[in-house]
């Protein structure tokens, strides 16, 4: 037998060495988190304002949901246009507890001043009136049955989107819906969900959504600067864990099979792999990651309403991943961070209008056009996205050894380099 | 002798065109069989039916000692039951290394959770190396399959087929794009494989078929035209008319 130790089998080395990008990413994230922490208001430094700190924390959550999108689309080939719906559902699930628990404290305090101590029923009615007054109701809808309990709502963050993804995916994959039809189906699911949330009688306050989520119940004395920092840390930790788990997932044979499904799912079936099971696993798993990202995002945003789950949000998510470079985890992170931060800059009204003399470009309006244009350009001319820039550096170190492809007629010839 | 695969009375039509017409075919557990026939005879469609890609309009396909019907099983279940297939156009996963391609094909539990937990041990790596050695791709183990030449991709697919350790190998035109020396090696591999399992080889090259030195089935217009030794079928007037004499 030939000596194969010389071939440097790719799977023999430790995880971190095989994937140096994971180490680099975690180190960069740690450095970023530390720097921002020291510059934050909570540390007595004003360089990073609390509102900017929230923007950064939210951006980390968007990076996390972008990783989930990259797993499902870039690695598994399922162009889901519904992952922001899972993100939103995670936000709603945690938002219900935040709103309930805080309202409960306020109502209890205000009733405590009365002569007769309030009954449990009075408190409950008070909370109901506070929360559902805007939609002309004070009844507690069944959907809020667990809102009093943080553990149960945390469970809902994971279980509700997870189950929806599981059922939806099972139905779709079982009937072998693929490609653009599957994308349309995910859009339809997203649209249905957001239309349902817009209704006033669904128990989730219709288009008012949930608000006041930035206030942690019982911690009114803690300044927002500190609370924001906590959420920023939590987001950074979630992103790090999400990145590690995803990198581990795509590194081994599982990743191999998933990428093979993306490239030629019929062939994978003939190898004996149950393709539908793999797709369902990836779809559901990434839906749960998206939901966790959403549960960290909305307390920093302070408010969630059905517009957040609109189909366009999921399309934006796909655009971020495409611009960042799909099929590599750091590409998704770069895309989400870059596009969402630049987008905040342009749509936040901070960017000065561009006066062309005959026409003034207002970035608030024109940013979307610019984004759309860059999406088209990236798709056409740089399918590897921003992440492809990394290849330019790494290829300089390890030159491309690819020779000219040989046709069937010269099939037996090895590539030219074999002769040198 | 009990047969490993029994196809009987199978027909399939595409938009009214009968690609397979009342075809019957059977092969024993350790047998090598060559299938020849003109273009469009239905050779590839026959493999599609056995592997579950195409559902026949009528007929039965029975498998193994228990005479299990393959017609109600999914492609992946059929593959797990022990039917391996090499495609006419080499289909390997171009974006992944030769090593990963072979590792994916290696016979192991196929469900997502086992795959997730799977980490190759010393033995698995040895097996992959031995396979790579057999197909002459050891120096290419770390390279992407997409960088291989056409002939090398054929080899890789044969290697993946062997890695699955199937009980029945369906091999569609394995020698296309290979040099005479490589063809000879392919013959050796197939003959050796047929010592312990059933192998069906579709091939146009008569020299190649002759070297396989086995029973030959001639397909024409979706049905069996002749069957027997190579000398027997090449003397058959019908075979000469539709295939050899062209
Ligand atoms: N999915 C399909 N839809 C319509 N027609 C098909 C389909 N698959 C095969 N056919 C037709 O069935 C006939 C048999 O095709 P098949 O590919 O089985 O031939 P073959 O014997 O493998 O030929 P070759 O030697 O060229 O590979 C051909 O006429 C082909 O056009
Ligand atoms: Mg064919």
Give a verbal description of the structure.
- Chain A has 420 residues and is mostly helical.
- Helix content of chain A is 65%, strand content 2%.
- Chain A contains 14 helices and four strands.
- Chain A has helices at 15-18, 20-39, 50-75, 83-112, 120-132, 150-174, 179-198, 224-251, 253-270, 275-301, 311-324, 329-347, 363-381, 388-397; strands spanning 210-211, 303-304, 354-355, 360-361.
- In chain A, a hairpin with a 4-residue loop joins strand 3 and strand 4 (360-361).
- The longest helix of chain A is centred in the first third of the chain and has 30 residues, at 83-112.
- Chain A is globular.
- Chain B is α/β, with parallel strands linked by helices and 246 residues long.
- Chain B has one domain: 3-Layer(aba) Sandwich (Rossmann fold), CATH 3.40.50.
- Chain B has ten helices and ten strands.
- In chain B, the strands form two sheets. Chain B has a six-stranded mixed beta sheet with strand order 6-7-8-3-9-10, sandwiched between helices. Chain B has a four-stranded antiparallel beta sheet with strand order 2-1-4-5, covered by helices on one side.
- In chain B, strand 9 and strand 10 form a beta hairpin.
- Chain B is globular.
- Chains A and B meet through helix 9 and helix 10 of A and helix 2, helix 3, helix 4, helix 5 and helix 6 of B.
- Bound molecules: adenosine-5'-triphosphate and magnesium ion.
């Amino acid at each position: 037998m030939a000596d194969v130790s010389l071939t440097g089998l790719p799977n023999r080395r430790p995880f971190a060495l095989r994937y140096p990008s994971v180490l680099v990413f975690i180190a960069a994230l740690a450095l970023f988190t530390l720097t921002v922490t020291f510059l934050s208001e909570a540390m007595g430094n004003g360089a990073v304002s609390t509102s900017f700190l929230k923007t950064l924390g939210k951006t980390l959550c968007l990076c996390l949901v972008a990783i989930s999108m990259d797993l499902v689309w870039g690695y598994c080939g399922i162009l889901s246009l519904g992952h922001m719906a899972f993100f939103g559902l995670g936000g709603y699930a945690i938002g219900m507890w935040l709103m309930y628990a805080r309202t409960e404290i306020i109502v209890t305090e205000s009733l405590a001043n009365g002569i007769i101590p309030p009954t449990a029923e009075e408190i409950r009615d008070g909370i109901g009136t506070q929360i559902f007054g805007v939609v002309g109701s004070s009844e507690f809808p069944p959907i809020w049955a667990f809102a009093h309990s943080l553990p149960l709502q945390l469970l809902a963050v994971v279980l509700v989107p997870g189950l929806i993804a599981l059922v939806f995916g099972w139905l779709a994959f079982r009937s072998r819906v693929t490609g653009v039809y599957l994308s349309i189906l995910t859009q339809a699911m997203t649209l249905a969900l957001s239309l349902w949330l817009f209704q006033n009688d669904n128990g989730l306050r219709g288009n008012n959504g949930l608000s006041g989520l930035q206030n942690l119940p019982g911690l009114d004395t803690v300044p927002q600067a500190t609370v924001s920092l906590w959420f920023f840390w939590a987001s950074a930790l979630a992103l790090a864990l999400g990145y590690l788990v995803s990198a581990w997932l795509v590194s081994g044979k599982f990743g191999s099979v998933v990428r093979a499904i993306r490239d030629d799912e019929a062939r994978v079936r003939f190898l004996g792999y149950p393709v539908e099971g793999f797709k369902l696993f990836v779809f559901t798993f990434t839906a749960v990651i998206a939901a966790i990202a959403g549960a960290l995002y909305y307390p920093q945003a302070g408010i969630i309403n059905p517009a957040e789950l609109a189909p366009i949000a999921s399309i934006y998510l796909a655009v971020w991943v495409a611009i960042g470079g799909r099929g590599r985890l750091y590409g998704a992170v770069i895309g989400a961070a870059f596009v969402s931060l630049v987008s905040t800059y342009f749509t936040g009204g901070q960017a000065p209008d561009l006066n062309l003399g005959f026409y003034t470009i207002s970035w608030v309006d024109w940013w979307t056009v610019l984004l759309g244009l860059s999406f088209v350009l990236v798709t056409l001319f740089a399918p590897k996205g921003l992440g492809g820039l990394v290849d330019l550096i790494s290829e300089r170190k390890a030159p491309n050894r690819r020779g000219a492809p040989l046709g069937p007629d010269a099939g037996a010839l090895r590539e030219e380099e074999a002769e040198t | 002798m009990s047969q490993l695969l029994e196809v009987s009375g199978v027909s399939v039509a595409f938009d009214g065109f009968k690609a397979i017409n009342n075809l019957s075919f059977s092969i024993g557990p350790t047998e090598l069989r060559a299938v020849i026939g003109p273009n469009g005879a239905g050779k590839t469609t026959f493999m599609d039916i056995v592997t579950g890609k195409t559902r026949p309009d009528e007929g039965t396909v029975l498998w193994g000692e228990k005479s299990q019907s393959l017609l109600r099983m999914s492609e992946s279940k059929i593959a797990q039951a022990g039917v391996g297939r090499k495609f006419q156009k080499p289909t390997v996963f171009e974006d992944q290394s030769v090593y990963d391609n072979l590792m994916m094909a290696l016979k192991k539990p196929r469900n997502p959770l086992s795959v997730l937990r799977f980490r190759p041990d010393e033995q698995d790596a040895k097996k992959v190396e031995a396979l790579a050695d057999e197909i002459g791709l050891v120096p290419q183990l770390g390279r992407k399959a997409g960088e291989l030449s056409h002939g090398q991709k054929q080899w890789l697919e044969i290697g993946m087929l062997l890695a699955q350790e199937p009980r029945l190998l369906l091999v569609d035109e394995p020698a296309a794009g290979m040099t005479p020396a490589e063809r000879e090696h392919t013959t050796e591999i197939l003959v050796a494989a047929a010592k312990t399992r059933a192998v069906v080889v579709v091939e146009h090259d008569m020299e190649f078929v002759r070297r396989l030195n086995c029973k030959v089935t001639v397909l024409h217009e979706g049905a069996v035209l002749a069957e027997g030794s190579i000398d027997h079928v090449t003397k058959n007037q019908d075979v000469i008319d539709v295939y050899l004499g062209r």
